[in-house]
Amino acid sequence: MKKILNDPTVYVDEMLEGLCAAHPDNYRQVGDAGRVIARADGPIDGKVGIVSGGGSGHLPIFTGYVGKGLLDACAIGDVFASPSVEQMADAIRAANGGAGVLRLYGNYGGDIMNFDMAGDMVEMEDVSATTVLLADDVASASRAERDKRRGVAGMVYAFKIAGAAADAGKDLAEVTRIAQKAADHCVSMGAALTPCTVPQAGKPTFELGEDEMEMGMGIHGEPGVWRGKLRSADEIAGEIMDTLLADQPLGAGDRVSPLVNSLGATPPEELYILYRIVKQRIEEAGAQIMMPLVGRYATSMEMTGISITLCKLDDELEGYLKAPAHCAFWTV
Amino acid sequence: MALDTPTLRHGLALIAAKMEASADELNTVDGALGDGDLGVTMTRGMREIMKVADDLPDDVGMALFGCAQAFTRISGSSFGTLLATGLMSAAKASRGRTEVPWSEMSGLLQGAVQAMSARGKAELGQKTVLDPLDAAAKAAADQSDGPAVLAAIDRAVDETMDAFRDQQAQVGRARIFGEKSVGLDDPGMVALRRVVDGLKAP
């Protein structure tokens, strides 16, 4: 393992300490163990709170997106591990401005069990909480079994759109409906070229040959669609776009925001090489591109690889996507 | 005769002591079919509960809520989350009361079984802790005093464990062991067995 760290057991704690020290106007640590990050100026009275949570190792997901017009609070587990129920309950409390809280996170078993339990706990304190799960990874299950799909980079759109709806003063039921719509309109797929190493494990999460790639791999190294020889940028982008467009077709007059995302180590240069094909395929379908995103939005430590997400927009979603928002990693 | 917070506090101390004494046994039975940390989960969970036991409020529901919350402070165990789920279900059903008649124990257990089944995505008959809990709920149905409720639960847990011992585990980590699980008690059932044993202590 070749990493810049002090002690693997406090990797996440030292990361959170530094994050809040660097951006005190944006983030603050709350909860007994400091494993909850909340808006520095929150909770906002009378606003629906948006809370997320999950394992570390995906910055800016999840913690990074705490900010105005985005998340109100976030529970953070160890790298690739679910936060505890208590941390999730603390995050819900930290997000609660009295108008209820939306739990918005990825479709992973451990997170669901713990977030549901945390919801039961805050219900005893008369905090109402709803849930929307992101299940945008088309490589993880067929469309017929959509509820089994994993949540990946589509979360960025859901956080942005739900956060803007809450900022606009919508009530909990409305924010939940809009977040669900955003989640339903996102499809993603990734490809990995090298694994990453979880600090506490000390070894790479999987092995991939020098000249190999894996198409459709999950952000924790979950098996993908195929493994084989590394292909060209145009071929990789083409296959992913074909798969995404078959899953969620685009036609004349449709609007879509594409996200070409680095899983950590892949440089922006290569993302822009991929973007050419993304643009071409969307335009061939007759659809219009709105607010394209290219960069590191959802990562897996130092994994080399990329993902492409398409968020299909209507007037409502487009309005919320373009509304102002700010966190240390992203300003709209 | 009713369950109130002092009675609950006494029962928790008995269970906590029994879990300390049974930790190695629970780790061992769990090691045969799981990851071998059930004794750790139960002792650490009960230690968290004992930290708040003296401060539990008179409202039985809020006291049970305090127990559930304490148990969730130990992370990383789905069995711990399931137990806390059962406690939360009982907490909701008894919220706002300082005394819950023993005749309601059956209903509280039944509610816990349903909540745990939903959260753990397991059904009755799959050789999990839900089976003896469900049997205990049914056995306690016609009882209205504390010792009789405990005696009925005690019998029901034994009978259910006997009935399931030679069946194959169908859910959770034990399922992966397939036929090897035949003849072995489900670790969660053993944990429940020891909880009831703890309560039987004089």
What does this structure look like?
The complex is a heterodimer of chains A (332) and B (202). With 332 residues, chain A is α/β, with parallel strands linked by helices. Chain A has 2 domains: 8-184, Rossmann fold (3-Layer(aba) Sandwich); 186-314, Dihydroxyacetone kinase, domain 2 (Hypothetical Protein Tm841, Chain: A,domain 3), CATH 3.30.1180.20. Chain A has 8 helices and 13 strands. Chain A has helices at 11-22, 85-95, 109-123, 155-167, 172-184, 233-247, 268-284, 315-322; strands at 27-30, 36-39, 49-56, 73-79, 101-106, 129-134, 186-194, 212-215, 226-229, 255-262, 288-289, 293-295, 304-313. In chain A, the strands form 2 sheets. In chain A, strands 7, 8, 9, 10, 11, 12 and 13 form a 7-stranded mixed β-sheet that branches. Chain A has a 6-stranded mixed β-sheet with strand order 1-2-4-3-5-6, sandwiched between helices. The longest helix of chain A has 17 residues, at 268-284. Chain A is globular, with a radius of gyration of 19 Å. The two termini of chain A are 37 Å apart. Chain B is an all-alpha fold. Chain B has a single domain, classed as Serine Threonine Protein Phosphatase 5, Tetratricopeptide repeat (Alpha Horseshoe), CATH 1.25.40. Chain B has 8 helices and 2 strands, in the order E-H-H-H-H-E-H-H-H-H. Chain B has helices at 5-33, 38-53, 60-72, 78-94, 105-120, 130-139, 146-164, 187-200, and strands spanning 2-3, 100-101. Chain B has a two-stranded antiparallel sheet with strand order 1-2. In chain B, helix 4 packs across helix 5. The longest helix of chain B has 29 residues, at 5-33. The mean pLDDT of chain B is 91. The A-B interface holds A 77, 81-87, 89, 110, 113-114, 116-117, 120-121, 123-124 and B 61-62, 65, 68-69, 72-76, 78, 81, 84-85, 88, 91-92, 95, 119-120.
